[in-house]
Amino acid sequence: MKRRDFLLGGLGSAVCAGAVGSDPGFRLADVTQAAGLNFQHRTGAFGAKYLPETLGPGCAFLDYDGDGLLDILILNGGDWPGHVRGPSSGLRLYRNNGNGTFTDVTQKAGLAIPLYGMGIAVGDFNNDGFPDIYVTAVGQNRLFRNTGKGTFIDVTQASGLMGRTGLSTSALWFDYDRDGLLDLFVCNYVQWSPDHDVFCSVDGKSKSYCTPEAYHGTTCWLFRNRGNGTFEDVTAKSGIFDASSKSLGVAMLDIGGDGWPDLFVANDTQPNKLYRNLKNGTFEDVAVQAGVAFSEDGKARAGMGVDAADFDNSGTTGIAITNFDDEMMALYRAGKAGAFVDVAGRSGIGVPSRRRLGFGCCFADMNLDGNLDLVAVNGHIDETVRNIAGNHGYAQAPHLFLNNGRGVFRDVAAEAGGGFATPRVGRGLAYGDFDGDGDVDLLVTTNGGPAYLYRNDVAAGAKSLRLKLRGVKTNRDGIGAVVRVTTPDGTQSRMVKTGSSYLSQSELPLTFGLGKRDRADRIVVVWPGNGVQEFTGVAAGQYELVEGGRLR
User: Fold this and answer.
1) CA-CA distances (angstroms) from residue 70 to 65, 301, 307, 428, 473?
2) What percent of the chain has a predicted confidence (pLDDT) above 90?
3) In angstroms, rounded to a whole number, what is the distance separating the alpha carbons of residues 239 and 186?
4) Do residues 398 and 377 lie in contact, with contact meaning Cβ atoms separated by under 8 Å?
5) pLDDT, average across residues 186-199
6) Residue 390 — very low, low, confident or very high, per pLDDT cuts 50/70/90?
7) d(Cα 170, Cα 359) in Å, to the nearest integer?
8) CB-based burial of residue 220 (10 Å sphere; 0-12 exposed, 13-18 middle, 19+ buried)?
């Protein structure tokens, strides 16, 4: 189904409500107001129906000041030239006070910058121990270097990243050549600017938001970190260049288990991309061979958000992709010979997600039972969809698919509490343990609306093992490292990664649910470059591991 078809009132399949089952083992609490998270997304809409107004914003959990507490960064839009309604900043940084509340430190941190923000990628590109911020935007993207003193400096010009403009979306940091330096991958959507806006209309008179089919695609970008504060554009020579792409989401994974990072890119109305790392500075798109470029009926879907993880504890990485309504989410399980199989239908995810338009998504063990659950936020792109017969709604309820560990998921969003299942125009989604209690909390953004912070309260007795990595020979963040934790219930594996979801980034520390067990029998850490460390009999709790050192 093409994106434009929803404007014609096409009917989808019937909603299949998830069956109510046993207690999910956790509860969510909306602590947005109590935390002081006062945010309102600014689309800049004034009636011209500009395409970017429907897309944002993204969000991130990060510890920008190194105090061990997760802070929050949210992107904002802005006003369009000739229609400025007042001063605005494209970023909002909230410092964690350690008592459940946050303070807006945007101005103090030097991030009160006027730009039309979209997405975020957080990573320590200069290996100084402090996370830096890359912001995608409409127009010029920005790179902000962390000074380590609670402030940031705009180094876009100095880094060689100035001058490339467009409509950028998701981004991630990864060390694709394993030289110990974080490189940068940036998704771009379509060739759009206010000066080249296309007139789209349903009735032939009034302007409506265009679908991506009205615009030409454009390539993603790959920038190699030179190690001297500057970056080299290697988009063409790396094999990434593809002017037909209309990219919204990107996730890092290792499809061959060879220790070299690969990339999955979710495209909107164009085939998805699966870039296999050839270990020589170049990539090969193997999406068609792997069975992830198209739907099972051979059509390019409208991919929005994506995450990749070992969701079935098989030791191999699977992929979740949110799509347009009437297309259902995709849930790919790794099969034989590098191929993937879409198990969304038989897993219980397909039918409930078919009537939703998904954006941010992530795998996270919400109840700490050792199985990765799947969270997705939803919302349509145009509020006038309410006026179309058979419409699926503008504000839409999110999904929280609980994993039973046997290949079946159940949507427990309505049982999670905290008003989490309330229909909203969802966009960004990230997870992180902001209150330090060992479970992961959720941060959600909405288009033209507020952000929401949900505290996760896991049932008494559930324990976790959390691990924060610090690279020495490898990149400082340990991006690309894989950790495997074994208990009598099996082995869980997680990769340290940036990006994923939609325009957003979750925390870097890894969380392993232990259920009611009080320790892990074995932990194996495989660093980028294949250095291996092993630990046995590790008690539940929170640890830091410096490469080559001991757990502490």
Assistant:
1) 9, 35, 21, 17, 25
2) 89
3) 14
4) yes
5) 95
6) low
7) 12
8) buried
Residue 538 has pLDDT above 50, yes or no: yes
CA distance 490 to 512: 12
Tell me how far apart the alpha carbons of residues 192 and 52 are, in angstroms, rounded to a whole number: 9
Bridge partners of 513, per DSSP, are 464
- Report the Cα 194 to chain-centroid distance in Å: 27
In this predicted structure, which of 8-12, 47-51, 163-167 has the lowest mean pLDDT? 8-12
pLDDT of residue 87: 82
Across 488-550, the runs of DSSP E, i.e. the strands, are 490-495, 510-515, 519-526, 532-539, 541-546
- The Cα 428–Cα 414 span in angstroms is 20
CA distance 421 to 353: 14
- For the chain, the straight-line distance linking the first and the last C-alpha, in angstroms and rounded, comes to 52
User: Which tokens in the block code for residue 467?
Assistant: 């691990």
Work out the number of other CB atoms within 10 angstroms of the CB of residue 229.
14
CB 277 within 8 A of CB 176: yes
DSSP state letters, 70-93: -EEEEE---PPTT---S---SEEE
Question: By C-alpha distance, which of 506, 493, 366 is closest to 438?
Answer: 366
Write down the pLDDT at residue 198.
95
Check if the beta carbon of residue 393 is closer than 8 Å to that of residue 423: yes
pLDDT at 22: 77
Nearest to residue 37, comparing CAs of 71, 11, 86?
71
Question: Taking the CA of residue 117 as centre, how many other CA atoms within 13 Å lie in the half-sphere pointing to its CB?
Answer: 31
- Specify the 3-state DSSP secondary structure of 118: strand
- C-alpha–C-alpha distance, residues 360 and 379, integer Å: 10
More confident position, 335 or 110 = 110
The CB density around residue 23, as the number of other CB atoms within 10 Å, is: 10
d(CA 62, CA 508): 8
Whether pTM > 0.90 for this model: the answer is yes
Q: State residue 14's pLDDT score.
A: 32
